[in-house]
């Protein structure tokens, strides 16, 4: 009944939705209306880093809902959940990233950051990477590195160039006309591509030489997913603008672009209200985000990510697996064909130990492994057994 209504009245994003109906979710599991449990190996696409319905987050939401929900547009009233969350975020980021602009999603963080870079530098050029994904709105779509998803929606933003991710020779395309380079710290939808440290050093240097702002998209990599709180920490560089969303809200919708106060201040005048949003920094989402970040830090959820990655890598060995790519709990299991990925995902869903597993927007020949950071060793073992059985 619900499925029919879903197909009838809810807008569809493809003609083959997974149609799994979920009644509730808790910790590392989702439950269907019959009570069948599914281990979550996708985390709602890198959102549920601390698991589903973490009690600290649920309590923070209830407490804030008892005080107030929406009051006014972002940036006018002093709302303590925004103040406290921004202060906490700034405390875990490098000193140069001390001003947080809260928005509602990853794509909005991308939009805000692109505007800030153009406004701050007075330049129009934007450089992105082939196979990049930064969201689906017009500006974010313009910097997507895959024409298949863009061509039907042209014209998009002008002045955008594309370089190859992790290719130092291509950095010469960054010039004094380039306002910004927007780049994922680890490319997610491309099928988890980890760049070399030398690449990011060279990119940072080139941006500094040309006065170009470096926007690093940590929407998928942030909040502990790669074994550090933010993935740029692996590479020894600091972006000019940092993009956050997904795992930021402990399951609630929130995003942010973060820069220095000096840069962010250009949005204040000439024109006034350079970027505005009604719901950005929603107090309930900020309360949830703060509770989620506190849970990550207090429960030291990042500490064992490397060990869990190693266990996945040790167990995921099979003649059909070409490679396991990635970092931390952001992994891609490379096979040969989409048919295999589709079959394995379906079998995993229907197996004796049901698993939710998926693939990537720009890489349909790899399985996505992005469980909550709270996944246990025995759950990893059972999940890998189920995947290997499906591969057989
Ligand atoms: N940037 C990256 C790296 C993403 O993976 C995504 C979403 O998958 C986005 C941006 C867009 O985020 P949202 O779907 O919240 O707009």
UniProtKB/TrEMBL annotation:
Xref: InterPro entries: Aminotrans_3, Aminotrans_3_PPA_site, Class-III_PLP-dep_AT, PyrdxlP-dep_Trfase, PyrdxlP-dep_Trfase_major, PyrdxlP-dep_Trfase_small
Pfam families reported for this sequence: Aminotran_3
GO molecular function, one term: identical protein binding
Coiled-coil parts of chain: none
Keywords: Aminotransferase, Pyridoxal phosphate, Transferase
Listed cofactors: pyridoxal 5'-phosphate
tRNA-binding is among the record's keywords: no
Record has Transferase as a keyword: yes
PANTHER family assigned to the protein according to its UniProt record, in alphabetical order: ACETYLORNITHINE AMINOTRANSFERASE, MITOCHONDRIAL, AMINOTRANSFERASE CLASS III
UniProt family annotation: Belongs to the class-III pyridoxal-phosphate-dependent aminotransferase family.
Name used for this protein in its record: Aminotransferase class III-fold pyridoxal phosphate-dependent enzyme
Species per Swiss-Prot/TrEMBL record: Hufsiella ginkgonis
């Amino acid at each position: 009944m619900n499925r029919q209504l879903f197909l009838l009245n809810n807008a569809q994003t493809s003609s083959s939705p997974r149609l799994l109906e979920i009644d509730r979710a808790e910790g590392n599991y989702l439950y269907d209306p019959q009570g069948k449990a599914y281990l979550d190996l996708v985390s709602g696409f890198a959102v549920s880093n601390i698991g589903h319905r973490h009690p600290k987050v649920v309590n923070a939401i209830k407490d804030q809902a008892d005080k107030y929900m929406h009051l006014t547009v972002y940036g006018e009233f002093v709302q303590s959940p925004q103040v406290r969350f921004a202060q906490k975020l700034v405390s875990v980021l490098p000193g140069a990233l001390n001003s947080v602009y809260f928005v509602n999603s990853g794509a909005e963080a991308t939009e805000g950051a692109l505007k800030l870079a153009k406004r701050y530098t007075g330049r129009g050029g934007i450089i992105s990477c082939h196979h990049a994904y930064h969201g689906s709105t017009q500006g974010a779509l313009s910097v997507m590195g895959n024409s298949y998803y863009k061509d039907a929606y042209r014209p998009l933003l002008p002045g955008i160039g594309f370089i190859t991710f992790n290719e130092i020779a291509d950095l010469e395309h960054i010039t004094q006309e380039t306002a910004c380079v927007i780049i994922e710290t680890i490319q997610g939808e491309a099928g988890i591509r980890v760049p070399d440290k030398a690449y990011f050093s060279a990119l940072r240097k080139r941006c500094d030489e040309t006065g170009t702002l470096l926007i690093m998209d940590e929407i998928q990599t942030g909040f502990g997913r790669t074994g550090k709180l933010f993935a740029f920490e692996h590479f020894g560089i600091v972006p000019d603008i940092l993009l956050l969303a997904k795992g930021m809200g402990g399951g609630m919708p929130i995003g942010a672009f973060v820069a220095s106060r000096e840069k962010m201040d250009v949005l204040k005048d000439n024109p006034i209200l350079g970027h505005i949003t009604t719901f950005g920094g929603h107090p309930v989402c900020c309360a949830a985000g703060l509770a989620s970040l506190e849970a990550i830090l207090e429960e030291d959820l990042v500490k064992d990510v490397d060990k869990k990655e190693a266990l996945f890598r040790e167990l995921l060995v099979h003649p059909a697996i070409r490679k396991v790519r990635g970092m931390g709990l952001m992994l891609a299991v490379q096979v040969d064909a989409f048919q295999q990925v589709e079959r394995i995902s379906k079998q995993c869903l229907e197996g004796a130990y049901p698993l939710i597993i998926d693939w990537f927007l720009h890489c349909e020949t790899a399985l996505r492994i992005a469980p909550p950071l709270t996944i246990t060793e025995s759950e990893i073992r059972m999940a890998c057994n189920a995947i290997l059985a499906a591969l057989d």
